[in-house]
Amino acid sequence: MNPLLVIMLILLVVSGLGLIVFILLHSGKGTGISDMIASSVYSTQTGTSIVEKNLDRITIIFAIVFLVSLIVLMIIYPHGTISAS
Q: How many whole angstroms separate alpha carbon 18 and alpha carbon 58?
C-alpha cells in the first residue's frame, strides 16, 4: 500500500472517531454527556464557558481534518483506483 494512502486513511478514521466523541460531549438543550461527566466545571448562569468554547474549537479542528483528508482521498484515489495488492 502507498504510504500516503495509509496516512490519509488513519487521519480519516481518527478524525471521524474524534468527531463522534466530541459531538457527544456537547451539551444540548437539556443535559448532555458533558454535564454528567464534569457537572461541577460548567456554570449554568454564564452561558458558554471556557470549557465549552474549547470543546467547540476541538470539534471544528476534527471536522476540518476529516473533510480535508476525505477530499485528498477523493482527488488522489478516484473511485475504483485502489487495488488490493
A: 9
Name the phi and psi angles at 28, rounded to 5.
-95, -150
Alpha-carbon distance of 65 to 13, in angstroms, equals 10
Cβ 83 vs Cβ 5: under 8 Å: no
- DSSP type of residue 29: S
What would you report as the CA-atom Rg of the chain, rounded to the nearest whole angstrom?
Answer: 18
Q: What angle do CA 14, 50, 34 make, to 5 degrees?
A: 55
Successive 10-residue mean pLDDT values, the chain, 85 residues:
88 96 77 58 59 89 95 84 64
DSSP-assigned states of every residue in 30-52: S--HHHHHSTTT--SSSSS-HHH
Residue with cell 448562569: 45
Q: What is the pLDDT of residue 44?
A: 53
pTM of the model: 0.71
Cell digits for 57?
Answer: 474549537
